[in-house]
Amino acid sequence: MTGAEIDEMPDEEFSSKINDYRVFARVSPEHKVKIVRAFKSHGNIVSMTGDGVNDAPSLKYADIGVAMGITGTDVAKGASDMILTDDNFTTIVNAIEEGRNIYNNIKKSVIFLLSCNLGEVVAILFSILFFWPVPLAATQLLWINLITDSLPAIALGVDPGDKDVMKRKPRNPKQSFFAEGSGTRAVVGGLLIGLLTLAAFYYGMYEHGYNIFSGLAKDITESADYNTALIYARTMAFVVLAASQLFYSLSMRNPEKTIFQIGFFSNKFLLGAIVVGLLLQELVISIPFLANAFGVHNLSLMDWGIVIVFALIPFVVNELIKVFGRAVKETGK
After folding, report:
1. CA-CA distance, 10 to 14, in Å (whole number)?
2. Nearby residues of 35 by Cβ (< 8 Å), 6 or more positions away
3. N or C: the chain end with fewer CB closer than 10 Å?
4. Above 70 in pLDDT, residue 298?
């Protein structure tokens, strides 16, 4: 179709027939804008490439304007959203892949932080509803938010990404941030982390002879033995909350593939964040002046094993959900 034929055709008719043509010849800047508008009227995300001054209007009107970095004019570069510094169209594909992985990494970090914070809210809220002692001190929550949450979230933000990301269909721009099960994963992960933190706290109290489900008299809560049991139980809850978040970050790397499919060592920053987080937890508990500052006590070897098992449960459950979810999809196909 030529530019003269475009002029003779009403906008509505041109938009309805736009998919019947692949080549447009002898077009003006106004025609290019009209072509872009026609494609956008069908709900398409339109990209426009150009290098000249006459391309500037359509570059600006398109969803993604791509200008040539070497041969492109300053006007075209100023109107575009992306500049190809090597003037190679293949670079556009690489940029799309990078953009998808960046978006996915941001989503991983946000969902991970939401899960962690929801777990903390659940632990505190349920303890209040059950009239239990508060399982975590304020300093312990601050420590977890500053160290345990932050390091894995940063590592997830620089994740190498999924090698198969370009095999997926483009994301709908109107799609919710919590679509494709992201919201469910955040809620399930947060509930598991919070409930297991409470379970560790209950076990720590029960281990010292206090059943907090049955209620505690005032004279008991003011005794020295009770305070010792409370510090020990809070230590167990503190470690479970921190360690469960660290382990859970491994399962956040991909919403569908398990960590065994992705590879444990494909993100060394995340592994480093987990090791550093666990090491810092151990130092806080074992070094006397830090233990006094955070109100914690060193755990026995058996209790270390118990808290590690508790901490691994959210990670294991999330990985099993991926396995069963993939099995259901394959069965449906």
Report:
1. 6
2. 6, 18, 24, 27, 58
3. C
4. yes
Q: Cα dist. 42→19, 34, 38, 96 in Å?
A: 9, 13, 7, 22
Whether the CB-CB separation of 112 and 249 falls below 8 Å is answered with yes
What whole-number distance in Å separates Cα of residue 207 and Cα of residue 211?
A: 9
**Cα–chain center distance at 323:** 19
Q: Are 54 and 28 in contact (CB under 8 A)?
A: yes
Average confidence score pLDDT of the chain: 90
**In 3D, which of 262, 5, 238 has the Cα closest to residue 124?**
238
CA 102 to chain centre: 11
What is the residue type of 8?
A: E
Closest CA to 195 of 121, 294, 305, 139: 121
Question: How far is C-alpha 24 from the geometric centre of its chain's CA atoms?
Answer: 43
d(CA 198, CA 124): 9
Residues contacting 104, CB < 8 A, separation 6+: 159, 161, 162, 165
At 171-215, the pLDDT tens digits run 888 888 888 888 888 999 999 999 999 999 999 988 888 887 766
Quick one: which H or E segment has residue 84? strand 82-84
Report the distance separating Cα 36 and Cα 65, nearest Å. Answer: 11
